[in-house]
């Protein structure tokens, strides 16, 4: 199936996602990653309709060196009553100078009359004229048949006529779009089968996830004979998103044995999915199939002991095929087996050391009793483990005291001010930091106090901060768990603090976060 | 299809999700919400294996008043070589005193020998013995056939024998589990059809989302004849999660016309999905089908104009059926209709007062923009509504300033001290309170300052306190939302505060909580 099309529309339909806004530079960066993943086509945007997209295609000609993918410019059929060759929007598609032009066309007769406000006949003429004009100009033309499934249900004869007209005019692929996303797999199977039988056209599929079935609908269409599948990286898109190409491609390749991208490229899936999320600034979804941080993470103690026997019994596929790996989560449901596995993952071999393992398990259990949950804080767990293995606690500084004052006049903005007193690298330091909250102020003060002794922590940045009140039945007397995520620009790590006082819990998590970050850079305590 | 089972396992399998940790109080709160949604069965946990779950079932007997759902206790078949009646784990299932017991059993012959380390024959005996013992004790027994689909592929004859044995012993439902989550819909269709043909047993389905097909797989099983579907709210669960019951039920009901919950209950889906996410403290996924904040949000300019002509052309279903509403991305969730409805609920008739309604909607929209969510804070909303209706803001006191000092020596317990200055009942008061955290100290100080003017608030007690960091990408610079629940011994109410500073947000929520409590007792401001 070497001619199968993997067609990415992250840069056009994916960019419709709420809160997502891509610059030209972002789009170029994403296109390069998509090419690395091995997709066949990259839809770059709508030149003419959107100045940013026009600019993208202009810059792409020199800035992008695509190895696998071809660029596609997206646009619509000519205006009603016009001539394709004279339509400025159609000319803009030519000016984008791409190998492929993808035209969106109405295929639902009610949309033709009510939204496009023209006749069904004129809509067919618009398709015929625009496709054949662009083919005549040497372009490969794909047609996105908008609202196809709803249209087919309402008026099958007209929907089929749209497909026939486009194919006869020279469109290489007609992609059937479930624009509103309301389909379920059996409907997709039926419609794709009937359209192939009724038109002999080459079909593609374009799904949205409004019923939670975008992936399954895409696979159903392929099973029924479609040989072109559209989607977006990480399922970005309007409303509930488009079909996630990472999941679709992984399923086609690893579950159904269709090699649609080179296996070596699929091994980059996790890396590329996360790299693209850095560009879009959308936090990766940890439960994403195949490449999510949790996708191969095991918590249940029941499984952990058996996982040691044979990981294949508890994994639906080999995670390394998509660049992921199995993780064991340390939790109250886990016993020695999962802690041993976790140690191994972190590079500490605990086999044959039952006494050491027992000590670690006992400490974890005791802390979990108090409300710690290491499953979300690998870095805190590694610090604990390292301490038990080496018998040496990493004290990067010696804290004397800290104090935070938060005050506010009525309705005036509140300010927090923190003062930290500590000894580091042989010197006593007193430092003060301000912030718009107590933890923010404490972070600033601690950073200020340590910066002379540890200039390395200048790159650290707090990127997430979560608070959970445990045992909430006691109201503000409850215990507080604070989870912090810190980044050094390359990697990120999670640390934890638990205490009755939220500020104290934050202090613990901050100190661990700094310690872990320094340890990872090979910096040992300077005393 | 009135006998169709909607079976929720949020409290057991959902709790396996990375980072999710539920207290007994959390579980009771979630169970009450699930009952409101109209699920038929709520799996509460594994009594005996987990002390927290034992305690849940104990408390549930008095604390839960279920109208629709039955509770199910989850556990495993007896140990190899033992007798069910003498197995402590099986006894713990009886002690949970639920109508239903759901037993997990191996159905994959390799798992029997390699993980369970017994013989295939003994595994069948364990199923027969445990099911018939529990049936004899008056329980409805459901069987979760673990790793069924992988097992059926490896050794169909044995997998079928497991189903037949369980059914013959009296199990009412045998739920086929795709434990590793690797299936695609066509496989599920085939296997479910073959098992029904080969056993005539009543089948259920339990799916995980590792291929992104948990919802489609669940629907495929129902289409093939399963009449019991398991899942979790919001798709919580280990790895990529379980089938999202919200999506599965919405699809069954709105797409396939099977009434599996009362339509009026489905209209609560958004509210209940979000209320449960407040308990789990897992940020709601905005792209979640049906109930996600973005699920009916339209950004594309192409659509926005046509949306006005006929929303049905651009929506796959009527969002109000799940309690959601259409948004174009400049506006937000709060519509006039829902605010009018909410007002009615609270005893404020807003019909025929378009100007007043408009003012309330505008204020709610503005506050929601800043991160307020009135969904979980009826008391704060009622204060706002009362203010607009009466034109009179309830100021029980006039705050001058407040200040909180939190300090700690190294490793010594942290203490917070709050000082509040205010005027109430004609007097200026300066009061100080201590606490083990800043909010606790502030609560004590404010109470101390107000007690002379309002002795009525002596009965108020803070019973819950929740913190969510919004816009977490900014780390500790993010906005904080604090939700407080207060009780006067008879009733409880929720109030909200949003501010960059967590202490300020808590102050707002505390002040509203005192105001609302006093108002409910008929106490007006004393000046």
UniProtKB/TrEMBL annotation, chains A, B:
InterPro entries: 2-isopropylmalate_synth_dimer (IPR013709), AIPM/Hcit_synth_CS (IPR002034), Aldolase_TIM (IPR013785), Citramal_synthase (IPR005675), LeuA/HCS_post-cat (IPR054691), LeuA_allosteric_dom_sf (IPR036230), PYR_CT (IPR000891). Its EC number is 2.3.3.21. It comes from the Bacteria. Residues 4-267 form the Pyruvate carboxyltransferase domain. Belongs to the alpha-IPM synthase/homocitrate synthase family. This is Citramalate synthase. It comes from Flexivirga aerilata. NCBIfam families: citramal_synth. Keywords: Amino-acid biosynthesis, Branched-chain amino acid biosynthesis, Isoleucine biosynthesis, Transferase. SMART domains: LeuA_dimer. Pathway: Amino-acid biosynthesis; L-isoleucine biosynthesis; 2-oxobutanoate from pyruvate: step 1/3.
């Amino acid at each position: 199936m070497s001619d199968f099309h993997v067609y990415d529309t992250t840069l056009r339909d994916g960019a419709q996602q709420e809160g997502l806004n891509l610059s030209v530079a972002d789009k170029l960066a994403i296109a390069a990653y998509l090419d690395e993943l091995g997709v066949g086509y990259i839809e770059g945007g709508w030149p003419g309709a959107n100045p940013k997209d026009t600019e993208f295609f202009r810059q792409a000609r020199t800035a992008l060196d695509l190895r696998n993918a071809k660029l596609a410019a997206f646009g619509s059929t000519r205006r009603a009553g016009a001539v394709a060759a004279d339509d400025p929007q159609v000319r803009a598609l030519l000016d984008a100078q791409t190998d492929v032009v993808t035209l969106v066309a109405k295929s639902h007769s009610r949309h033709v009359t009510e939204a496009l406000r023209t006749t069904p006949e004129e809509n067919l003429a618009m398709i015929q004229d625009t496709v054949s004009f662009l083919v005549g100009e040497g372009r490969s033309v794909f047609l996105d048949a908008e609202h196809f499934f709803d249209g087919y249900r309402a008026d099958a004869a007209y929907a089929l006529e749209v497909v026939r007209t486009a194919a006869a005019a020279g469109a290489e692929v007609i992609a059937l779009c479930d624009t509103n996303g309301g389909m379920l797999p059996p409907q997709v199977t039926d419609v794709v089968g009937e359209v192939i039988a009724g038109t002999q056209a080459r079909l593609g599929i374009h799904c949205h996830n409004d019923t939670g079935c975008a992936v399954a609908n895409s696979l159903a269409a392929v099973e029924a004979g479609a040989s072109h599948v559209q989607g977006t990286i990480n399922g970005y898109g309007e409303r509930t998103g488009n079909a996630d190409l990472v999941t679709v491609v992984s399923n086609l390749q690893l579950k159904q044995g269709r090699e649609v991208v080179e296996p070596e490229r699929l091994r980059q899936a996790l890396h590329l999915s996360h790299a693209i999320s850095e560009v879009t600034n959308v936090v990766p979804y940890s439960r994403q199939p195949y490449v999510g941080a949790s996708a191969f993470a095991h918590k249940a103690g029941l499984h952990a002991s058996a996982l040691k026997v044979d990981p294949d019994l508890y994994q639906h596929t080999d995670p390394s095929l998509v660049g992921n790996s199995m993780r064991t989560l340390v939790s109250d449901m886990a016993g020695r087996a999962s802690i041993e596995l976790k140690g191994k993952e972190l590079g500490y071999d605990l086999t044959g050391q039952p006494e050491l393992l027992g000590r670690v398990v006992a400490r974890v259990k005791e802390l979990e009793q108090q409300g710690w949950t290491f499953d979300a804080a690998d870095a805190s767990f590694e610090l604990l483990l390292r301490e038990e293995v080496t018998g040496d606690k990493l004290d990067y500084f010696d804290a004397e005291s800290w104090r935070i004052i938060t005050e506010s006049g009525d309705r005036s903005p509140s300010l927090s001010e923190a003062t930290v007193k500590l000894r580091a690298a042989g010197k006593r330091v007193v430092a003060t930091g301000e912030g718009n909250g107590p933890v923010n102020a404490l972070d600033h003060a601690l950073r200020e106090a340590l910066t002379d002794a540890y200039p390395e922590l200048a790159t650290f940045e707090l990127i997430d901060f979560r608070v959970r009140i445990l045992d909430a039945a006691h109201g503000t007397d409850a215990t507080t768990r604070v989870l912090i995520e810190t980044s050094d620009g390359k990697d990120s790590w999670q640390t934890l603090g638990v205490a009755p006082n939220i500020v104290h819990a934050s202090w613990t998590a901050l100190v661990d976060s700094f310690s872990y970050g320094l340890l990872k850079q090979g910096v040992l305590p300077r005393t």
